[in-house]
Amino acid sequence: MRAFAILTMALLVTPTNRGGAQPPPAAGISTALAEERAARLSDLRYDLSFRLPGDRRERVTGRVTITFRLQNPSMPLALDFAPGRPDAIRSVTAGDVPIEARVADGHVVLPSSALRAGLNTIAIDFDAGDPPLNRSEDFLYTIFVPARAHEAFPCFDQPDLKARWTLALDAPGDWVTVANGAEVTRETRREAEGERVKVGFAPTEPIPTYLFAFAAGRFSVEEAERNGRRFRMLHRETDVAKVRRNRDAIFDLHATALEWLERYTGIPYPFGKFDFVLVPAFQFGGMEHPGAVFYNASGLMLEESATQNQELERASTISHETAHMWFGDLVTMRWFTDVWMKEVFANFMAARIVNPSFPGINHDLRFLHAYYPAAYDVDRTAGTNAIRQPLDNLNQAGTLYGAIIYQKAPIVMRQLEMLTGADRFRSGVRDYLRRYRFGNASWPDLIALLDAHTPEDLAAWSRAWVEEAGRPIVTTELEVQDGRIVSLGFGVSDPDRRRGLTWTEELHVALGYADRVQTLPVRLAGTRVEVIAARGLSAPLFVLPNGAGLGYGEFHLDPASLAWLGDRLPDVDGRDGALTRGSAWVTLWDAMLNGQLAPERVVDLALRALPREGDELNVQRILSYLEQAYWRFTPEAERSAKVAEIERVLRQGLADASSRSLKGAYFASLRNVAQTASTLEWLARVWRRDETVPGLTLAETDDIALAQALAVREVEGWEAMLRQQVERTLNPDRKARLQFVLPALSADPTERDRFFASLANGANRRREAWVLDGLRSLHHPLRAAESARFVTPSLALLEEIQRTGDIFFPKRWIDSTLSGHRSESAAGMVRSFLADVPATYPDRLRRIILSSADDLFRASRVR
Ligand SMILES: [Zn+2]
Q: In whole angstroms, what is the distance from residue 439 CA to residue 205 CA?
């Protein structure tokens, strides 16, 4: 592993000019620039202050004093600063001496005459760049991941230059402020426009730029104590009952996660205080700033109708961000090529932490549903990528994020733990955290540590599962004679044989009988494996290679098993019946996408399965497959013949559902699918409150979603409904979001054109969640024919979106754009776009498009 790592680094480094006449660095942070600075700088400190105006149109101004030890002062030194506006630098001093410096290509180059060996102090007065400050009318919050701090202020924006940060925020007097460090000073004063407050925060432990954070604005604050630690929650929720309903659970989940992690790692929480901020329409589920975690408010403040899945999601998100305090924050990747490592550790730990909080849940099944479908959705496509991806400039770091990091990597990590053994794995992880605490490490550093704990060849394993993309193809070979198994084997192959990979993994194959499911452990290695223990067993009704959902691959059923499960999957019962059914659904979905099972058979199977499925997680999965099979894979002409039956099953499910969350899930599906006049009328009555669904409470977000669904179907009076919904919406953030989306719902095509055209302006894409909401309405399947004209222009905008947006935005932008389409012409537009882009088109964007368009390509081939 180590040799391979050194080779990788050597390839990434472009030669630097070590002579005197060094060219200024190009835009972004290249590996060359980062390595040069990491070698020269140490003992880095930032002392930052910002003045935050109450009026969003005024500039945020700031001053930063950077101190560091420097080697080799004979070369100039580049700071990063790309505020997106001219003349943002007001003054620069080195020591006490003013120096001439200007911003070029996102850098402020300090001349060698201003530098000296040893300790240096650089002070800069500047106007902050707005984009990563996420400014709203009366609040703002920073997102500096992956390398966006330098869009706001001058710094060395790379993960392996950790620093201690001291911050002061000067804000309107009624604003609440929060940062990584604890508040230590506070002064209020009166100015012409009103009271102002200046808050000073304690210096942080060493953290990188992407973890430095603050938020300020009109927030409500909840406080609680758990296990002797004080927690603070900032939020903007206006529904008092909702806050009351959620607050204790949110604090408890944090406390449980912290306690668990301290025990597992053997290291106490390293960052002092623990605050978190619930941000409306936050770009991610959460962001792990030490001492100041930011969350998407809707993920934590659940509605009364929250599904079990949403509750699990909430617990997982909280545990995920908390796990980052050790994995990512205490030990940080050296370079963003290993960003997946912190994500996989966080997800892996989150799964462990969440389990005890939900004793009634089938956790293996939850793992299956949380990770496999999303990982396969990317890994089966031509646009997939390896878990570990090369990255030669941080301005491309955002494109590394996605399902392969968040969903495939946890599956792979679980395999690594199985391969290593849980105890040895934990010892290796503890060694790793202790050795690199408050520093940086790479994946090869961890593999080397773990390799010392096990006889396995982890380097070869890592090459297939981590350094390369895709899934092994596993085919089932079953031979039966006289009612007994003669042989059961699996063929293992790589989609690209030239790579010469060895796919090693552990499986539990399930053999289904009328009265039971029997599982047998199998270790896949090489090109064919026979399950010796299966010889002589009575012939099963079906064989499901990944029965217990441990393995990972494109699993092909033998023809008899495919036929049996395609008809009788709901009959599968027994001790692990729910897990077997869940895994069978995931396998059958692959079979459908591979053309081995017709979409209408999947729809019919779902309709038969729903009334009988006893597990809520499986119900959620089946509902989601049903919706996709219906909208995406059923030709328009055949939908109307099917929709009445689907609605009937969903309404029955809604009536019969035993829990509030299950009712919520059925209701959401019904809302998404509904098309018959009688169901639409009924939904409209529900929206008007002329009708109630026993056991179902509709929150403001549900009302909004319902109004939007009815609008896109143009039910009678829909325009008035939308206007009424705007008036009815009390929460100002949700009201503004709905108003933003309205033009995308308009019956007037020119209005929809205007909405789409407005998105070409970056300022109108600032609220990414709003934009995606609008795009999904614009491209609703019922409007696919009219919205096809936006497909190519959307693709054309992707490069700019990647440059200006947050990390998940490019993929989501294309996902939302293509979500409603299934036509050959839409597929053709994507293909010709890709054929026409120049050879220099970024490979990662090409991959994003290919993976987003995969379902469209497959659906367009269905009749
Ligand atoms: Zn994370």
A: 11
